[in-house]
Amino acid sequence: MKILNRVALLLVLACASAAAQADAYPNRTITLVVGFPPGGGADAVARIVGDKMAKILGQSIVINNKPGAGTTLASEFVAHAPGDGYTLLMGGVGSMYGTDQLLYKSARYDGIKDFTAITRWSSAPLLLAVRKDFPAQDVRALMQEARKAPDKLTYSSSGIGVAPHVAGLEFAQMAGIRMLHVPFKGGAPSIQAVAAGDVDMTFGTPPSVLPMAKTGMLRILAATTARRSPLFPDIPGMQESGVDNYDFTFWFGLWGPAGLPPEVTRRLYEASVEALKDPEVQSNLEKQGNQAAPSASVDEFRAWAVQDGQRYKDLVSRSGAIQQ
Predict the structure, then answer these.
(1) Strand 291-292's sheet: what is its strand order?
(2) Class of domain 127-223
(3) pLDDT of 185-225, one tens digit each?
(4) At 282, which helix (H) or strand (E)?
(5) Has residue 17 got a pLDDT over 70?
């Protein structure tokens, strides 16, 4: 009986200790891993939301940029980190549940089993931008140029399988044209290649494209949404540009490694939602061409991300990009 009582006491103490640790979370610096280089659209979102969350949580959040291999390097790093809430991942559209496993066979993680979904952070359109001396002045003329010479027109992206690449694939399919994809390691060199005239066009994030458009180094033809985005009311959407049924937005969300304690997951979800409701955060995101878009719940985010990831897989599989 004494042994049973002692075991019961140890179990109670263990549960109390676990609960105390969860209540104390976080009690040290959190690392937020981003699969893109500093200075791009993803990095901007991570810093805007991360800085506010740090204040809410009462601990520093340090950004760790790990670009390369279509964000799989960052995903793999977090997948193998301890599930204690101190190493997190800001992933984008297609991450974990999307094209990463399809295109990068070397990725050593399971997109669903090795992560804990927390919440979506933001959503935004991409902007179709062309080099400043590109002959077409609108999307209709661009499609005509592409039909004259299939695979001659080139478009850049920040890597195989990431949002700008997939946006280009879907655009080509919907428009009935063929273009050549030119991947780069990050959004900045991708946009710079268009500005330098080395590539014809790109589907870039607003913070990467807008500054160069304002200086005349490239021209914006359309947003990737079907209708005009409220963020960019002066830029035509795809429907009025002559591409029916094309409506592409990219998003960023927060994940942790598998096995994240429910109390920690809930704390991170609540802190994210609180941060995204802050007017200053919303304003700063909008300046970067993003809208705050927190999920209704952790479960809703997980189900939605899996569904959107499958859409990406289907699109990439049909495109033949898996051979790249």
Answers:
(1) 61-65, 30-34, 87-92, 249-257, 115-125, 291-292
(2) alpha beta
(3) 878 899 999 999 999 999 998 888 999 999 999 999 999 99
(4) helix 279-287
(5) no
CB 181 within 8 A of CB 111: no
Buried b (16+ CB within 10 A) or exposed e, 84-114: bbbbbbbbbbbbbbbbbbbbbeebebebeeb
Residue 59: closest CA among 94, 92, 20, 32: 32
Q: What are the backbone dihedrals phi and psi of residue 174, each rounded to the nearest 5 degrees, phi first?
A: -65, -35
Alpha-carbon distance 253 to 259, whole Å? Answer: 18
Decide: 298 and 120 in contact? Cβ < 8 Å: no
- Domain borders along the chain are 28-124+249-323, 127-223
User: What residue type is assigned to position 239 of the chain?
Assistant: Q
Cα–Cα distance for residue pair 281/48, rounded to 1 Å? 6
Residues 209, 130: Cα–Cα separation, whole Å: 10
Residue 217: what residue type?
M
Residue 32: name the closest of 271, 259, 206, 207 by CA. Answer: 271
Q: Of 223, 226, 229, 220, whose CA–CA distance to 243 is shortest?
A: 226
The per-residue pLDDT for range 82-141, each reduced to its tens digit, is 999 999 999 886 666 667 777 777 788 888 889 999 999 999 999 999 999 999 999 999
Give domain 28-124+249-323's CATH number out of 2.60.120.620, 1.20.1250.20, 3.20.20.370, 3.40.190.150. Answer: 3.40.190.150
Q: Residue type at 256?
A: G
Tens-place pLDDT, residues 217-244 = 999 999 999 999 988 999 999 999 999 9
Structure tokens at 214: 């304002």
